[in-house]
Amino acid sequence: MNEFLTHYAFLIVPIIKIAILVLLVLTVDAYLTWLERKVIAHIQSRWGPYRVGPHGLLQPLADGVKFIFKEDPMPAGVDKIAYFLAPFLTLMLALTSLAVIPFGPQRFTIWGYETHLGIADVNISLLVLFAITALAVYGVALAGWASNNKYSLLGGLRSSAQMISYELTLTLSVVGVLLLAGDFSLRSIVEQQAQSGKGLVSWNIFPQIIGFLCFFTAAIAETNRVPFDLPEAESELVAGFHTEYASMKFAMFFIAEYTSMITVSCLCTILFFGGWLSPFPVSWTFTQFLPSVLLIPFGLWVLYDGIRYETIFGRLLLPGVGTALLALGGALLAYPAINGYIQGPFWFFAKVFVFLFVYIWMRGTLPRFRYDQLMSFGWKFLLPVSIANVVLTAAAILIWGKH
Amino acid sequence: MTAPLIIFFVLAALAIFGAVSLILQRHPIYSALSLIVVMVALAGLYLLMGAEFVAAVQIIVYGGAIMVLFVFVIMLLNAGLEERTNFSGLATYAGIPLALAVSGFIAAAIARSGGYLPAPAPSGALTSTKTLSMLLFTEFVYPFELTSFLILVAILGAIVLAQREN
Amino acid sequence: MPIHEHLRPILEYLWIIPLLPLLGSAVNGLLGAKWPNKTVNAVALGSTGLSFACALEAVREFMAGGQAPFRKEFFDWIIAGNFRAGFDLQLDQLTVVMVLVVTGVGFLIHIYATGYMAHEGGYYRFFSYLNLFMFFMLILVLAANFVLLFVGWEGVGLCSYLLIGFYFLKKSAADAGKKAFIVNRIGDFGFMLGMFLLFRAFGSLDFQTVFAKAATWQPDTVGQFGTLTIACLLLFMGATGKSAQLPLYVWLPDAMEGPTPVSALIHAATMVTAGVYVVARSHVLFTHSPSAMYVVAIVGCATAIFAATIGLVQSDIKKVLAYSTVSQLGYMFLACGVGAFGAGIFHLMTHSFFKALLFLAAGSVIHAMGGEQDMWHMGGLASKIKVTFWCMLFGTIAITGFIPFAGFFSKDAILFAAYQSENSGKAFYAVGLLAAILTSFYMFRLVWLTFGGEKRYDEHHVHVHESPGSMTVPLMILALLSLVGGWFAAPALWGGPNYFAEFLSPVFGNAELVGGEAAHSLELTLSIVAVLAAGIGLIVAWRMYSSKVVRGTSTGLHKILYNKYYVDELYQATIVGPLVWLSRNVFWKVVDVGMIDGSVNGIAHGTEAVGDTVRHAQSGNVRSYAVWVIIGAIVILAIIFWPLWRPAFFVATSGGVR
Amino acid sequence: MVPTNYYLILSAILFGLGIVAFVFKRNIITLFMAIELMLNAVNLAFVAFSQSLGKPDGEVFVLFVIVVAAAEAAVGLGIVILTARNRHSLNVERVDLLKL
Questions:
Q1: Does residue B51 share a domain with residue B115?
Q2: In C205-340, alpha helices (H)
Q3: Are B43 and B57 in the same domain?
Q4: What's the average pLDDT block by block, 10 residues per block, for chain A (403 residues)?
């Protein structure tokens, strides 16, 4: 048994990792929808989902069930193959793009197979990411074209034009970072930011602030999120490219969208905000206790909130969760050695969460672009700025060298 | 039969399948999609050979820009199934055999001459992106500039063509 | 060896000398059409004057440099295999003389022309041509290899053509221009052949290399002459064309159709002496082939006497001078032929002074007579146009060789050299002396017919008037020069050194500096004889023309001479006529119309027919075009790979042949 | 290790298929795709050679080819759009006015 494992570890371990990641991501997506609805609701001073489970925590499950069991009508005169292909393609690409993202520094060995946090460690991972996002256009475009519906077609056209236009910026705005790192591998980009060991100050965000702004804007456009969600502008195109999609296929588009949000957030984190690095200098070892120290008050709050919750279920569930969190925090304090391991993932996911929140926040606040505005903004403002950023960075490196 | 060989045959089969389906499909969209398949397969082959940067560029530019443009135009013109007219007798009767003859020629020539070539170097060892860019900006800088000029001209030409005369 | 380069600005940039006239020519020719005469004068005179100044400066630097021959390759012009023709200029003693003569006399004649041409049309054109001529002439004399020299050679020919035919509306002028050009072509043909032969023999056309190799040249026999002999004769053929020697002299008298300054500058002072210059420049070659030298001497001698005889009876004042020029050139070639190159160049210089003077004076006379050129319609002008008269008299005395004028010394040197030369020198001397007598006769005849006796023209139509200062001042300067021009050689008379010959000796070697007391006494006697000869001519002319003269009907010998021995008619009958017939009936009607036009039109028609048939392949259907492309590809591939596959086509495996 | 020959033969096959497509298809846009296919085949050959000869020049040329292909697509598709606009057909055999 054991030697079987050691012999085929190179095959088994990645499969396991992939399974874990996919499950994780799907869950995160589900609760991302919940979070989005909650946050936007509060922004608009509403309650948001509240019925299913305490604080509507089980809403995602309900949605999932609905998606699965809902009828899936196919409109007349659609191009069947493309119609089916589109959502699968979209989801597949979205999930694939996560494969090259490293979540933490550690390398560990399972059954004699050395591996790390994250699926694949390609040395041109950034390029691979861009390649995959580049292909993501087809899903939307095909969906729009295949559903044999004017609005959808318009949506598809819009998305293809928009994605091509903003992909330029997306790629160019990263060049600055690449110049600093001198490598395409996301891992080495993070390590380059860690070199000085001074924490926050050595992150790319400071030299590359312009690049970051361009990148984030372009990334939002690439993911068809507000304020760039013209392909699915409900006020103009009903629901754009996925008007004719229902139930599971629609869910695929949905999941794909949220997954790509996660991907983009991860990218922003890695490229500009030092990935899994802690913002504090390495010398401040005591900051390693931060996660556990954060857990305890959170657990306390959940406990307190749970006790005075109105539904029985809530009163049963929430305190349990709270005590679990407290226990976890206590354990971490008890066995400080663990902290060293969870540092990386902790900071990484914390930063990613911030970006996801920003996404939702923007959706809550910003209005949608008009199409011509979108184009002129992308071509006449964003692109020149990112090019200028490249030139400036190159000049700076030429003059002062890399830091 | 080693792993690379297996991968090669899979990808090659994929590429050939794509090319054939490009020919057989009657709707341009599907031709385009099958061409994309070919390109992805080729990108995989490049990776197999260790030309990673070229592979990435192949996907990004060909798959992500050029073919998107094709699909876009096909959608824009709402191109239907192609009609199989046969106005050119020459092409109808002589076209396919001659085309096959040419490919036969080339294949035979390669089969003859290619034997003298050494086997590819171990993957990735050869061309890091750095060496490639060094080459591009030192030895090939003049053609590089020329191509940039070509791009500019192409942009202008496309604009001039696309704008409605008024 | 270049010493003190910083001290010799002009010498290091020698090209400035020819460049200036070229600029002047370009400016005048391109912009001058609308300009007033003053501006054109400024440009033309400025350029030539500056170039004269530069030449003086260059010579000064040359002298300062210890007379070291200067040579510089400015840029490569033609490079083909081992053949190199560069823009190389050189400056040695011979060049110094030529450059000074060309620029100096040219400058004076320019000044003169501003007055003479003042009332003519195409003023700017005239000066543009004139400057252009200066440019080419300077290239000719400064060139350091045969090719560049040939450029100048052809250029002056061109300018001569343009200027002879300056009044191109007048048919005779146009014809004269053509005649000059064509006759020169014959000579140039020989010249080119000579160059080719030299290149074949020495593998270079550079003066240095050619002469260096020629100095150590083993006589061979190509034909039954040596290569050198043939080359020299071919070069000399060119010289006869350019310098109007027998048998190619016929163009020069007709060239008198051009404006008088042109006759003075080109056809007396500078261009026609180019032939002499070339012979002198390539003296190394000539001295290595005595037979060629002998030919030169004979031709020169014959021309001298021949032209002089014709000159005896001409009635047109310029024609007389023209024939006199031809005869004087004959003298120079005689000198070169007997190896007295120095003497030849010396005579070239003095002749350029006094012959320019004579022509200009004649021009002044014509100006005064309102365009009349026939001496029989002149007479008694001495009192009316004194300056011109005296200048003309100076020139006459100079050319006839009365001591102490320039002509005396140069002509004396030539005759002396001829007398001393071993093979049939005496005969040469005798003929030369006879020619001298004739010269003095026709020159004084000219003077008396023009200025002496009573007037033979109609007061009412022509009112004689002295020319403006712009014409008379150059006359006086030239008169002075033709007086003192020869005094370099004066000390030789009382046994002193001949400065001119010594100055040139580095170029020519001490070939003709045969000193010795006996030689000196002989020289004295010879010169006395020469003066006496001139005197005879003077007396005869005085006897015949000083008193009242009437133009008799020309008969017998006089008629033959007056018609120039019917040479033109002879050429017309033997050469020109047949050629014209040939070109009209064969080259035009058969070759041109039949073959050339026919082939051109045939090709056109053929193309059209082919297009008519093939164009149906142009179906406009892209797919069929694609198939055509494929067929082409197959053909190309077959051509490429056939040699690769001929052995056993299908043995080819993916493994290939290892 | 995969012998270079295999790559070359694959590229030859793809090229031939491109030619076939070019003569066989009627849709202008598809013709363009056929051209792209041939270009890709050539690229494959380039990379294969550069790998087997150990010189990266071939890959640089691939980059150039891709750039040229992009330019060609931009202009060509512009022309296609105009043609479709004026001739109301994408069939290359119906666009045959350019003849004598």
A1: yes
A2: 207-215, 227-242, 251-254, 260-264, 274-281, 283-287, 290-311, 317-337
A3: yes
A4: 71 84 87 87 85 80 85 80 86 87 77 74 83 85 83 82 85 87 83 77 83 89 79 68 79 87 89 82 76 82 81 80 84 78 82 89 85 86 90 86 63
Do residues B59 and B137 share a domain?
A: no
Q: Which two tokens stand for residue C105?
A: 């006399």
Q: How many domains in chain B? A: 2
Three-class secondary structure of residue A184 per DSSP:
coil
Exposed e or buried b per residue across A32-60, where buried means at least 16 C-beta atoms within 10 angstroms of its C-beta: bbbbbbbbbbeeeeeebbeeebbbbbbbb
Chains that touch B (3 or more CB pairs under 8 A): A, C, D
Q: How far apart are CA B32 and CA B41, in angstroms?
A: 14
DSSP 8-state class, residue B126? S
Distance CA C57, CA C20 (A): 14
DSSP letter at C69? P
The answer, as to whether pTM is greater than 0.95, is: no
Q: How far is C603 from chain D (nearest CA, A)?
A: 22
Backbone angles phi, psi at C128, to 5 degrees: -60, -45
What are A70's two structure tokens?
């809902």
State both tokens at C252: 């020069």
Is the complex ipTM higher than 0.95? Answer: no
Residues of D in contact with B42 (CB under 8 A): 40, 43-44
Q: Distance between CA A261 and CA A267 in Å, rounded?
A: 10
Do β-strands A107-110 and A113-116 pair in parallel, antiparallel, or remain unpaired? antiparallel
Is the pLDDT at C201 greater than 90? The verdict is no
Q: Please give the span between the terminal C-alpha atoms of chain D, in angstroms, as a whole number.
A: 55
The amino acid at residue B94 is A
Same domain, B165 and B113: no
> Pick from C11, C1, C18, C5: which is nearest to C143 by CA?
C18
Question: Which of chain B's residues have a Cβ under 8 Å away from the Cβ of C631?
Answer: 98
The answer to whether position B97 is within a domain reads: no
Lowest mean pLDDT among C73-87, C147-161, C216-230, C640-654: C640-654
Q: Tell me, yes or no, if D99 comes closer than 8 A to chain C by beta carbon.
A: yes
| Statement to judge: residues B25 and B2 lie in one domain | yes
Q: What is the H or E stretch that residue C428 is in?
A: helix C425-451
Nearest to A17 by CA among A98, A133, A126, A92: A98
For A228, B62, C315, C369, C397, the CA distances from C453, given in Å and listed in that order, are: 117, 107, 16, 16, 19
Task: Please enumerate in sequence order all residues whose Cβ is within 8 A of that of D94, keeping only pairs 6 or more positions apart, or say none.
Answer: B85, D87
Whole-angstrom CA distances from C120 to A109, A127, C171, C254, C259 are: 110, 85, 18, 21, 10
Contact assessment for residue A207 and residue A392, using Cβ atoms and an 8 Å cutoff: no
Please tell me whether residues B73 and B132 are part of one structural domain. no
Q: Which residues of B touch D9 (CB under 8 A)?
A: 107, 110-111, 114
Cα separation of B46 and D11, whole Å? Answer: 12
pLDDT bin (cut points 50, 70, 90) of residue C658 is very low
Nearest to A164 among B36, B53, B68 (CB): B68
**Token reading at A375:** 């184009």
Q: Give CA–CA dist C347/C362, Å, rounded.
A: 21
Asked if A351 and A200 count as a contact pair (C-beta separation under 8 A), the reply is no
Q: Is C374 helix (H, G, I), strand (E, B) or coil?
A: strand
Q: Which domain holds residue B139?
A: 128-166
Q: Which of C620, C626, C627 sits opposite D96 (nearest CB)?
A: C620
C549-600 pLDDT tens trace: 666 666 778 788 888 888 888 888 888 889 899 988 888 888 888 889 999 9
Show me where the domains of chain C are located. Answer: 563-618, 625-658
B43: domain CATH number is 1.20.120.1200
